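Exercise 7.
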Amino acid sequence: MSTQDTPSASPFHDESPRDEAPQSVLPLVVRIEKADPPARTDALETAARAVLVMLSDERSLGEGDDEGEWARVMRDWQDARIRKVVRRARGAEWRKASALDGITVTGKAAEVRVFPPVPLDGWPKELAKLQVSGTDLDDLADPGAPDPLAPVLWLNPDLGMSAGKAMAQAGHGAQLAWWELSDADRKAWREAGFALSVRTADPAAWRELTLSGLPVVRDAGFTEIAPGSCTVVADHPALRAG
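Solution. The predicted structure, written as tokens, is:
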């Protein structure tokens, strides 16, 4: 995952290769009950908001004496390659996952729980046994046009991604936007409840979006799609040129 035109002042970019740092992953679990699964767009938007809630939570912030309980693992995770994995749960699985340290974020109907980063080979057993596959979700109704005054995470119209993969990519896009914002803009977004939309871009507009200077997610290619594929453009009003 990377950005175009990333400011050199960003605290998450330095000269050391990210792949040489210890690798960890941010786990997200989406609740998918057989009888009442969430809509795809609702799940994507809720996952993106969950990432932002985790990034801005007091437990994820601070240093030294003011360090939150998750701050160190959050810093280590952000200094390495940014990985997120979405798994699904229902019934007793969801209840067990909800008992672990984390934050549950709800959308219109979707529920996503995000957890502090864990080592690639160190998942809690309650999460390790959850399935990654089977997160295919549908929108039964057109989600409609996004709010032009709120951030929009635009998905690549040429890529077919499972809902789980798209949830992780939306989370990447939200995180890149968060990194690029000023403290004042971050505060305003948080106070607005991290309002955002996730939509598939119009094919005719996609190339322009990727060249606009807005944050662009490029996938590492571990699953589903080719390495280097542009998956999401994070269109936050505060980051738009002009």
